[in-house]
């Protein structure tokens, strides 16, 4: 089964040899299943002059309960792109892992990296595969952003793609947010985003937007200073993807919280 | 009814072996050896697009000689198997030994069941924490596996090349010394009347599994970095360049590894300092 000529796509390979490993291929009993699994919440992405910044809060909820305080929802998809997951946590994590392997697999089989649009289209078809489960309440929505190595203008190299349960991708200009707190995060970004932000400014803005989301959405967690749990912040630039260290995000989060002590509205 | 000629199983196997052996000996050679900083692959290859050496997984590399379509098929199978196991279990659970076993099964089955055996010889190498811990496996057309500690040569006049390689190989060689040794071994045969010859840099395919990297350790050495290594003058500089921005880190197995994500550890790096590709 491994030696068939086949394709360069790992998910297509799986659909032949191990379809049970694909989230969309599992039979689900009828009925709404939204309440049985934790939900991951808000992710924001912002284009900066050097690429993109993506940040996610750390909360997962199950109905009115907090299922996890320190879930990590923003991860590198490959060396130059990032993926954040909102929606049903288990399926989201699985899709994200699958997407990471998908990109690496293609790279190894073909000896070349997929274009950023190719990656986004691939992710869209994987999300579409989960449509049945989404209609039963187990929806997963990713946010995908990356540094486009093929971009002619370095200022336009950072790109963001959003999706819906039926697929996508939809390219966003400047910034986007997904998840339960996205309304508030997007509203905050709408007022504060300026093209050509430096990376530190974009990081600060992302954490501010998450704070605003947590302020008005119970399912989004703000910076937890007492437990030292801060948002996950990653960047994708010409140098590749990079996750800000705990101390760096702590400094930004503390500065944001201190600012809100003076002015709660930001 | 047509009469079937009788051929003894022994004769059939001998014929198949001969076919495979001849096919492999016609091709150009490849060598694999461990050095202080990792595992080095050097193959004589006129094409810069069709690779004889490639990446399978984080710490596992693949080299092959013989018919391209046949070993390319095996390489893809290896990548698929490694990625499937890495996704189902964990990245640490993908090992060179398991892969060598799977290849042995596949090659063995093809040799006995199909009318034409694969005319290939392949090498699966896994880089360890020290040169002694490196694993280098040779797999031949009939599915037999050999563990080759330190170094191996295959294809063309493999025996002569392996002899030249083994006489001078040490586990603690630098990358520049290892590349030079590999080149001198490869060029020790094939000249006029069995004499040595010269091989230009653009006829070589060179790659390493870098012992000091976390995550995906496979790197190709091409262009200026390769010429610098071969010239020897800027060797130290080139070695630095292949190690790139990374300060040497000893690989760290175990608890710090993320389990939520299937990305390789170099991407998921949570340590302070430069991360990324």
From TrEMBL, chain A:
Instruction: Provide the E.C. number(s) assigned to this enzyme.
Output: 3.4.25.1
Matching Gene3D superfamilies: Glutamine Phosphoribosylpyrophosphate, subunit 1, domain 1
What GO cellular component is one of the record's annotations?
A: proteasome core complex, beta-subunit complex
Q: Which GO terms describe its molecular function?
A: threonine-type endopeptidase activity
Q: Which UniProt keywords apply?
A: Autocatalytic cleavage, Cytoplasm, Hydrolase, Protease, Proteasome, Threonine protease, Zymogen
- Which GO biological process categories is it annotated with? modification-dependent protein catabolic process; proteasomal protein catabolic process
Q: What class of enzyme is it?
A: hydrolase
Q: Specify the signal sequence span.
A: none
Keyword Hydrolase attributed: yes
Q: Does the keyword Protease apply?
A: yes
- Any Pfam family matching the protein: Proteasome
InterPro entries from the xrefs?
Ntn_hydrolases_N, Proteasome_sua/b, Proteasome_suB-type, PSB_actinobac
Q: Which residues cross the membrane?
A: none
Predominant location: cytoplasm
Q: Which residues does the entry assign to the active site, renumbered to this chain? A: 41 (nucleophile)
Catalytic activity of the protein: Cleavage of peptide bonds with very broad specificity
**Propeptide intervals in chain numbering:** 1-40
How is the activity of this chain controlled?
A: The formation of the proteasomal ATPase ARC-20S proteasome complex, likely via the docking of the C-termini of ARC into the intersubunit pockets in the alpha-rings, may trigger opening of the gate for substrate entry. Interconversion between the open-gate and close-gate conformations leads to a dynamic regulation of the 20S proteasome proteolysis activity.
Q: Which pathway does the database say it acts in?
A: Protein degradation; proteasomal Pup-dependent pathway
The record's subcellular location field reads: Cytoplasm
What does the sequence similarity comment in the record state about its family?
A: Belongs to the peptidase T1B family.
Describe, as the record does, how this protein assembles with itself and its partners.
The 20S proteasome core is composed of 14 alpha and 14 beta subunits that assemble into four stacked heptameric rings, resulting in a barrel-shaped structure. The two inner rings, each composed of seven catalytic beta subunits, are sandwiched by two outer rings, each composed of seven alpha subunits. The catalytic chamber with the active sites is on the inside of the barrel. Has a gated structure, the ends of the cylinder being occluded by the N-termini of the alpha-subunits. Is capped by the proteasome-associated ATPase, ARC.
**What PANTHER family does the entry give?**
ATP-DEPENDENT PROTEASE SUBUNIT HSLV (PTHR32194:SF0), METALLOPROTEASE TLDD (PTHR32194)
What is the role of the protein in this entry? Component of the proteasome core, a large protease complex with broad specificity involved in protein degradation.
Protein known as: Proteasome subunit beta
Species, as recorded:
Micromonospora pattaloongensis
UniProtKB/TrEMBL annotation, chain B:
**Species whose genome carries this gene:** Micromonospora pattaloongensis
Quaternary structure (record): The 20S proteasome core is composed of 14 alpha and 14 beta subunits that assemble into four stacked heptameric rings, resulting in a barrel-shaped structure. The two inner rings, each composed of seven catalytic beta subunits, are sandwiched by two outer rings, each composed of seven alpha subunits. The catalytic chamber with the active sites is on the inside of the barrel. Has a gated structure, the ends of the cylinder being occluded by the N-termini of the alpha-subunits. Is capped by the proteasome-associated ATPase, ARC.
A Gene Ontology molecular-function term?
Answer: threonine-type endopeptidase activity
Any single biological process term in GO: proteasomal protein catabolic process
User: Activity regulation per the record?
Assistant: The formation of the proteasomal ATPase ARC-20S proteasome complex, likely via the docking of the C-termini of ARC into the intersubunit pockets in the alpha-rings, may trigger opening of the gate for substrate entry. Interconversion between the open-gate and close-gate conformations leads to a dynamic regulation of the 20S proteasome proteolysis activity.
PANTHER family per the record? PROTEASOME SUBUNIT ALPHA/BETA
Sorted UniProt keywords = Cytoplasm, Proteasome
Do you know which NCBIfam families this protein is assigned to?
A: 20S_bact_alpha
Under what name is this protein listed? Proteasome subunit alpha
Quote the gene name from the UniProt entry: prcA
UniProt biased composition (Basic and acidic residues): 235-249
Q: Where in the cell is it found?
A: Cytoplasm
Q: Which residues form a coiled coil?
A: none
List the taxonomic lineage: Bacteria, Bacillati, Actinomycetota, Actinomycetes, Micromonosporales
């Amino acid at each position: 089964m491994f030696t068939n000529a086949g394709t360069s796509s790992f998910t297509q390979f799986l659909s032949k040899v191990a379809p049970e490993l694909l989230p969309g291929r599992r039979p689900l009993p009828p009925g709404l299943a939204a309440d049985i699994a934790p939900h991951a919440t808000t992710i924001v992405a912002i284009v900066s002059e050097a690429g993109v910044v993506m940040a996610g809060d750390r909360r997962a909820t199950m109905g009115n309960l907090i299922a996890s305080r320190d879930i990590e929802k923003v991860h590198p998809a490959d060396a130059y792109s990032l993926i954040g997951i909102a929606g049903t946590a288990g399926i989201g994590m699985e899709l994200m892992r699958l997407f990471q392997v998908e990109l690496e697999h293609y790279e190894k089989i073909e000896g070349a990296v997929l274009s950023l649009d190719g990656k986004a289209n691939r992710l869209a078809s994987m999300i579409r595969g989960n449509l049945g489960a989404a209609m039963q309440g187990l929806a997963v929505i990713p946010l995908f952003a990356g540094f486009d190595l093929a971009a002619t203008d370095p200022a336009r190299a950072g790109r963001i793609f959003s999706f819906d349960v039926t697929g996508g991708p939809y390219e966003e200009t400047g910034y986007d947010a997904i998840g339960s707190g996205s309304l508030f995060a997007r509203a905050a970004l709408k007022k504060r985003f300026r093209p050509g932000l430096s990376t530190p400014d974009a990081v600060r803005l992302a954490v501010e937007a998450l704070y605003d989301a947590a302020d008005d959405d119970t399912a989004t967690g703000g910076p937890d200073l007492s437990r030292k749990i801060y948002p996950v912040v990653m960047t994708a630039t010409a140098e590749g993807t990079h996750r800000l260290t705990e101390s760096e995000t702590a400094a930004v989060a503390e500065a944001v919280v201190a600012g809100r002590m003076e002015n709660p509205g930001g | 009814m047509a009469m079937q000629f009788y051929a003894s199983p022994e004769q059939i196997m001998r014929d198949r072996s001969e076919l495979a052996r001849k096919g492999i000996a016609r091709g150009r050679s490849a060598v694999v050896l461990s050095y202080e900083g990792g595992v080095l692959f050097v193959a004589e290859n006129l094409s810069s697009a069709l690779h004889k050496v490639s990446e399978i997984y984080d710490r596992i590399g693949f080299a092959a000689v013989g018919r391209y379509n046949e070993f390319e098929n095996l390489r893809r199978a290896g990548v698929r198997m490694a990625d499937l196991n890495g996704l189902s279990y964990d990245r640490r659970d993908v090992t060179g030994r398991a892969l060598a076993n799977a290849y042995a099964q596949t090659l063995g089955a093809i040799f006995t069941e199909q009318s034409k055996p694969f005319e290939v010889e392949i090498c699966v190498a896994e880089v360890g924490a020290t040169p002694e811990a490196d694993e280098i496996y040779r797999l031949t057309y009939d599915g037999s596996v050999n563990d080759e500690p330190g170094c191996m040569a295959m294809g063309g006049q493999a025996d002569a090349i392996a002899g030249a390689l083994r006489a001078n190989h040490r586990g603690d060689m630098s990358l520049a010394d290892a590349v030079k040794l590999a080149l001198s071994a490869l060029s020790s045969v094939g000249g006029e009347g069995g004499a040595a010859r010269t091989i230009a840099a653009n006829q070589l395919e060179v790659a390493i599994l870098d012992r000091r990297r976390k995550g995906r350790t496979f790197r190709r050495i091409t262009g200026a970095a390769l010429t610098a290594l071969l010239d020897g003058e800027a060797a130290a500089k080139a070695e630095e360049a292949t190690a790139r921005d990374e300060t040497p880190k000893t690989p760290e197995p175990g608890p710090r590894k993320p389990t939520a994500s299937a990305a390789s550890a170099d991407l998921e790096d949570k340590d302070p300092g430069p991360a990324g590709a």
